[in-house]
Amino acid sequence: MKNLNKILFVLALGLGMFATSCSSDDNEGETIVPIEGKYNLSKQGIIVDGKEQLGDAPANQPGCNGDYLDLRISNAAVIGDYQGTNCSLTETTGTYARSHNDLTISIGGVSTTSDIMNLTNKELKLKDKATGIITVYTR
């Protein structure tokens, strides 16, 4: 009988700890997907009358690979830009910082801060806080 009481006590204690540890797991809308990775520039646009108007990214050179954003674990940000008829690649390196759902990228003394609208294993959607331009990157 004592063993049964001990087992019931341990079971009740375990269930109580499980229930309380899960009750306040709230990330306040912040995504928990890691932001590090290489993203290909896909679409750009704006919001008109509350609706997103996105089209192919004009920065992508026709006939070349798409431009990209590479966010590295070391907080380095690398922007890859293909240009010209020979699709020459220019990489520009800077830094990035993430604070909740804000992403700040600093390159060449110029910083831009964007809202992270969507971050999944396949997509990073940013909205520039200064211009309102939406940029969609895919992995």
Can you give a write-up of this model?
The structure is a single chain. The protein is an alpha+beta fold and 139 residues long. 15% of the residues lie in helices and 50% in strands. The protein has an eight-stranded antiparallel barrel. The longest helix is centred in the first third of the chain and has 21 residues, at 2-22. The protein is globular. The termini are far apart.
Pick out its properties.
139 residues, alpha+beta, 8-stranded antiparallel barrel, 1 helix
How does the SSE layout of this entry go?
Elements lengths: L1 H21 L14 E12 L2 E6 L11 E4 L4 E8 L4 E12 L2 E6 L2 E10 L3 E6 L5 E5 L1
Antiparallel strand pairs: 1-2, 1-3, 1-9, 3-4, 4-5, 5-6, 6-7, 7-8, 8-9
Quick structural summary:
The protein has 139 residues and is α+β, with helices and mostly antiparallel strands. The chain has one helix spanning 2-22, and strands spanning 37-48, 51-56, 68-71, 76-83, 88-99, 102-107, 110-119, 123-128, 134-138.
